[in-house]
Amino acid sequence: MNRRFQFAVVASSTCLVLMLLFGAVRGRSASNDNNVYSHLGVYSEVLSRIKADYVEEPDMKAVTVGAINGMLESLDPYASYLNAEQYKQYQKTKDQTRASVGVVLSRRFGYLSVVDALPGSAAAKAGISTGDVIESIGNVSTRDMPLALAQMLLDGDNGSTVELSVLRVRKSEPQKMTLTRANLVYPPVSGRLVNEPGKDPIGIISTYALDPGRAKDIAAKVEDLEKQGAKRLILDLRHCSTGSLEEGIAVANLFLDKGLITYSQGQKVSRQDYQANTSKAITKLPLAVVVNRGTAGASEIVASALMGRRADVVGEHTYGGDATIRQGKTMDDGSAVLIAVAKYYSPDAKAIEDTGVTPNVAVADTEQIGDLDDDNADAAVPATPKGGPDVILKQAIETVSKK
Fold first, then answer.
1. Beta strand residue intervals within 237-382, DSSP E
2. What gap in Å lies between CA 18 and CA 178, rounded to an integer?
3. What is the DSSP letter of 278?
């Protein structure tokens, strides 16, 4: 079956499965229940026609798996369907610390999309960046590949290698590259004092991850910068795409002494509010938060909580990372879906994974770089070209100096 016909079959199946799913989600009345069975009947009839009349005998297993993955991606780009063998392997490795090439992934248009390349990683050294698409891992196409499976293929033993085919932003042809896996160590939280003529001293705190313990490190940097004379603060969360959501809440609380930070809620998960604890707030200095397209997940919780109430958020539209509570739901045959059962929301009730964070002070570079994600086509582009001025940070300094 050629690629065009494969795509047509999978796309048709996906659309029909989506009708079934949406009918099921909304099926709270007898009328809606009838719609569910109606969609199922249509789906079954189309599959029957494909099997009986299609120009070639289709691989129905591949069609079904493609439909399932397309359905999951349309709802949640971080969701995965794993067959029984894949799920067993996932269970074995999910809590292990394995060497990595250093990419944070999502899915777009059926392929693996790069959220960010972690600082110092093989991926970052190879020039992989936000918006790039990984077309294959080894000799395996990533088309409809479950995200969890992709991560298992990318991770491995320290010093081992993996070959990738990467479609780069602004490059017409995929690039082949061989990356060496390594045990990654995130750079520590950094802090520096900036003194510009005519402006109060500004303390700049930067972190590339929000793993456990980072809130304590950030608090220590704030205290140190205040002792050095800082009168204003900038929290730089650019390329901060990993970490625990709980740590994001803790970091936001450092700068908020009251009010809602975030809340989680799902169809069957009751709403849980996370309120700022007055005793955990450490500073009232004027604040700006700096973000870009590589800002994702826990760091988006920080930015959305602080924007408007406590800080100006300066930079680019953030990615919309995996700010969810995720669970594995097993099937009778041992396969499983890894799906979000609840999402985290900004104080103004926007699902962080769905919308990301739109800065109230947007900064775009003059060197436009195309975005592969149509949903964010109007987002600002990376504003720190190699060797060029850091226009986002410059704007953050101007913004916080006026507060």
1. 260-265, 272-275, 287-291, 311-315, 324-330, 336-345, 361-362
2. 37
3. G
From 384, 340, 282, select the one nearest 73 (Cα to Cα): 340
State which H helix or E strand residue 134 sits in: strand 133-137
This prediction's pTM: 0.83
| SS3 of residue 330 by DSSP | strand
Place of tokens 């603060």: 233
For the chain, give percent helix, strand, coil, nearest 5: 35, 25, 40
User: What is d(CA 11, CA 169) in angstroms, rounded to the nearest whole number?
Assistant: 25
Distance CA 359, CA 292 (A): 9
Could you give the CA distance from residue 255 to residue 253 in angstroms, rounded to a whole number?
A: 5
- Distance between CA atoms of 82 and 377, rounded to whole angstroms? 31
Length of the chain (residues): 403
In this predicted structure, the answer to whether residue 383 has a pLDDT above a threshold of 60 is no
Q: DSSP secondary structure string, 364-385?
A: --SS----S-GGGTTSPPP---
Instruction: Write out pLDDT tens, residues 144-175.
Output: 899 999 999 999 999 999 999 999 877 778 99
Regarding predicted confidence, which is higher, 30 or 61?
61
Token pair of 307 as six digits? 């924007």
Residues contacting 339, CB < 8 A, separation 6+: 72, 75, 76, 79, 326, 327, 329
By CB neighbour count within 10 A (0-12 exposed, 13-18 middle, 19+ buried), where does 238 fall? buried
Q: Given CA atoms 59, 61, 64, 65 in this order, what sign does their dihedral have?
A: negative
Tell me how far CA of residue 49 lies from CA of 9, 54, 138, 207, in angstroms: 11, 7, 35, 55
* Confidence class for position 39, pLDDT limits 50, 70, 90: low
Structure-token pair, residue 390: 């850091």
Query: How far is the C-alpha of 208 from the C-alpha of 129, rounded, in Å?
Result: 14
